[in-house]
């Protein structure tokens, strides 16, 4: 017979681990969702791409100093 | 050590369940914060992306919860004395005080930063001020020093509708300031009505509640005075663009009912109150909850009507 004593302490730990995991997942989802909303609010996502890491003049609208 | 050696009702600091952490955030207070902040945000005359609105309200709720955790950390000694609060996570030993402090500080920083990024930094600054006011000005400074603790400290609980409005618009306006004033003026009669029938609790903890320092008569006078002062504030809010006939009608009825309840509390003494087990005081307390809920509910209805009629 396998020896396995479940104490309510384990239940609490499991609940806490699950809670922390879900909260971390929720934070990631919120930050991702906010990023999407903020970029879409620019109207043209290409404008954001123009300044992604390094300036890409071809992706920046002509009126803003780009070549496109 | 084997698991079998653990006692069935082990309570080890740091081994709290999620429910204990949830309780640390004072969910009932948080529900009021969420509701009033939501009304402030929805009543604002600008459109907000639903996801940004959701995150803003979440941040305000988490900021309110963080204040609650810091309050429980600081007040663990008096919470352990009062019947109403001795079952809370910190005084009961389920959550260590330092843990409550760490959670409160971490959530405060998180909520303020995220609100700044999601909405704007004016709203984030207001939220930071709200947390500071509740924790430092009310909990640490005023609560144990003056019977006016809940009057001044009530500002912290009153600010969420303004934070919600500023999160939407990025600027101040008269309407949300009047919403703040409404909650601010409502808080004293609400708490003093409660203090009249849980009087022994505050006395045990030596919290200078007005009932303890100045007695029943003065408290009853104050309840009626604040109920009278609430009338012009709530009616003035009815004259702003966020309100309309629904709000005004609700406000007139609610003010009459609340004034009546507070009048009943004022016109009798402690002996009469004890004779019927504080029936009038309990009625005034319950009515105060309804008073605030329906005032903000009416503003929400006005905002909904405005959207429907404007569409």
Automatic annotation (TrEMBL), chain A:
The chain crosses the membrane at residues 20-41. Keywords: Membrane, Transmembrane, Transmembrane helix. This is Cytochrome C oxidase assembly protein.
From TrEMBL, chain B:
It is a multi-pass membrane protein. Pathway: Porphyrin-containing compound metabolism; heme O biosynthesis; heme O from protoheme: step 1/1. Its main location: membrane. The chain crosses the membrane at residues 29-48, 54-74, 121-142, 149-168, 174-198, 223-240, 246-266, 287-309. One of its GO terms (molecular function) is protoheme IX farnesyltransferase activity. Keywords: Cell membrane, Heme biosynthesis, Membrane, Transferase, Transmembrane, Transmembrane helix. Its EC number is 2.5.1.141. Carbon 2 of the heme B porphyrin ring is defined according to the Fischer nomenclature. This is Protoheme IX farnesyltransferase. It comes from Rubellimicrobium aerolatum.
């Amino acid at each position: 017979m396998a020896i396995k004593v479940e104490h309510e302490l384990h239940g609490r730990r499991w609940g806490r681990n699950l809670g922390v995991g879900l909260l971390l997942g929720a934070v990631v989802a919120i930050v991702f969702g906010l990023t999407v909303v903020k970029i879409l609010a620019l109207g043209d996502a290409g404008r954001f791409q123009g300044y992604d890491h390094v300036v890409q003049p071809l992706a920046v609208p002509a009126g803003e100093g780009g070549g496109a | 050590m084997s698991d079998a050696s653990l006692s069935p009702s082990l309570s080890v600091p740091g081994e709290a369940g999620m429910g204990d952490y949830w309780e640390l955030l004072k969910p009932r207070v948080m529900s009021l914060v969420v509701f009033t902040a939501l009304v402030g945000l929805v009543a604002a005359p600008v459109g907000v992306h639903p996801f940004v609105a959701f995150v803003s309200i979440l941040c305000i709720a988490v900021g309110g919860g963080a204040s609650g955790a810091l309050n429980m950390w600081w007040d663990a000694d008096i919470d352990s004395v009062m019947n109403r609060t001795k079952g809370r996570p910190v005084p009961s030993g389920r959550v260590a005080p330092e843990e409550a402090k760490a959670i409160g500080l971490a959530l405060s920083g998180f909520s303020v930063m995220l609100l700044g990024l999601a909405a704007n930094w004016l709203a984030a600054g207001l939220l930071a001020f709200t947390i500071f006011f509740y924790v430092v000005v009310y909990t640490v400074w005023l609560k144990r020093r003056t019977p006016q603790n809940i009057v001044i400290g009530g500002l912290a609980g009153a600010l969420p509708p303004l934070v919600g409005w500023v999160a939407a618009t990025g600027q101040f306006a008269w309407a949300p300031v009047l919403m703040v004033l409404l909650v601010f003026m409502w808080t004293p009669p609400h708490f003093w009505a409660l203090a009249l029938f849980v009087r022994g609790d505050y006395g045990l903890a030596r919290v200078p509640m007005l009932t303890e320092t100045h007695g029943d008569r003065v408290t009853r006078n104050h309840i009626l005075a604040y109920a009278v002062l609430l009338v012009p504030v709530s009616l003035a809010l009815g004259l702003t663009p966020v309100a309309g006939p629904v709000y005004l009608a609700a406000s007139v009825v609610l003010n009459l009912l609340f004034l009546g309840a507070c009048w009943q509390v004022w016109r009798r003494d402690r002996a009469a109150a004890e004779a019927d087990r504080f029936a009038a005081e309990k009625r005034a307390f319950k009515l105060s909850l309804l008073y605030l809920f329906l005032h903000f509910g009416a503003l929400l209805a006005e905002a909904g009507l405005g959207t429907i009629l404007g569409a």
